[in-house]
Amino acid sequence: KRLVVGLTGGIGSGKSAASDWFAEQGIDIIDADVIAHTVVAKGSPTLRKIQKKLGDWVVDAEGHMDRAAVRTHVFANPAALIKLEEITHPAIREAAKSQLKASTSPYVILSAPLLIEAAEAGLANLCQRILVIDVSEDTQLARASLRDEQSMIKIKAIMANQLDREERNRHADDIVVNNADLAALYQQLEPLHQNYLTLAQQLKY
Ligand code: ATP
Prior knowledge:
Catalytic activity: 3'-dephospho-CoA + ATP = ADP + CoA + H(+)
Function: Catalyzes the phosphorylation of the 3'-hydroxyl group of dephosphocoenzyme A to form coenzyme A.
EC number: 2.7.1.24
Largest sheet: 5 strands, parallel
Number of helices: 9
Order of helices and strands: EHEHHHHEEHHHEH
CATH class of the largest domain: Alpha Beta
Shape: globular
Bound molecules: adenosine-5'-triphosphate
Radius of gyration: 18 Å
Oligomer: single chain
GO molecular function, one term: dephospho-CoA kinase activity
Keywords: ATP-binding, Coenzyme A biosynthesis, Cytoplasm, Kinase, Nucleotide-binding, Transferase
């Protein structure tokens, strides 16, 4: 049995920054965002299922999923969102599981923005521990808007769809606070990494 540490946090909290640091320590990273994109790639069985369920309009002329159209549709139709997720969530979970199986590092980081929110997706129950990157809302807004050049309104809308800080932190086994510079982040990650190595070793016996 291997140790899987779920990594989560709100938009712009620093999940990628933390993942990159763990990767540098030789830890395999499974990124739910990346998987969510690859499972609906052009020609994939998952995309075909979505097309059958929601209609041919979900696929554009080149055969790619029309993300903007799907987003708009499910935003206005909660029932369609449920149908969509009934298809995508199991596919994402299966892909994550097969990546876990293929992983060879002492433990694994499973990074997912909605690890706690999307409980029905079943990613959290692949994890033995949850690590939350906590950041103030002001920092979140500033960093997310710097990075993506997204409007404040759009970022605030995404934040409104995510758990608030207190609620997310309640689910955490470990919390790092990422309001200062990257050095301060790495300084908090180091002892956690050591702890995870120890826990992983214990799990083996
Ligand atoms: P998302 O969920 O939106 O993908 P994320 O949680 O993966 O976000 P990152 O992409 O790691 O967040 O960080 C958001 C932005 O803030 C990036 O441009 C990153 O370089 C920057 N950043 C992260 N941590 C720090 C820090 N401690 N100091 C300065 N900049 C930071």
